[in-house]
Amino acid sequence: MATTRSAHTVWKGDLFTGSGQTSLDTSGLGTYDVTWDARAEKAEGKTSPEELLAAAHATCYSMQFSNMLKENGTTAESIKTSAAVDFVPGTGITEIRLTVDATVPGISNEDFQRLATGAKDTCPVSGALASVPSITVEATLAS
C-alpha cells in the first residue's frame, strides 16, 4: 500500500525577481521562503529545491543504510549522513555527494563500504534522482 506525503508552494512574480513559500503539508512542520537568489546565489535565510532534496536524500540514505546494516547482523550505533547537491543554472542538478560517518560495532571496513555503496544505489530517493549525472558516497567507519 502506498503512503502519500505532500507539500505545496505558492510562487508570486517571475523567476528572477519573484518569491514563494513552500509548506510541508503532511507533517505541518513549517513554511519556508524560496527565491531564485536562494537557489542560485546565497541562501540568506531561504531554502531551495536542492536543499530540500539534500535533506530528503540524507534521510533516505541513512534509513536504507541502517536497514542494510541490521540485515547484515551489524546494527549501527549511529549514522550521520550529509548530502551536498550541486545546481548549475541552465543545466540543473549535476552532482550529489553523500558523506556518512557511522559507528557500527563488529563490522569489517570491507563490508561497511560494500553496504554503504549498496545503500546509495538502493535508497528510494537515489532511485528518484537517477538522472543526476553523479551520485557518490564517501563512508567513514568510526573506530
UniProtKB/TrEMBL annotation:
One of its GO terms (molecular function) is peroxidase activity. SUPFAM superfamilies: OsmC-like (SSF82784). It holds the Pfam family OsmC. One of its GO terms (biological process) is response to oxidative stress. PANTHER family: OSMOTICALLY INDUCIBLE FAMILY PROTEIN. NCBIfam families: osmo_induc_OsmC (TIGR03562). This is Osmotically inducible protein OsmC. It comes from Crystallibacter crystallopoietes. The lineage of its organism: Bacteria, Bacillati, Actinomycetota, Actinomycetes, Micrococcales.
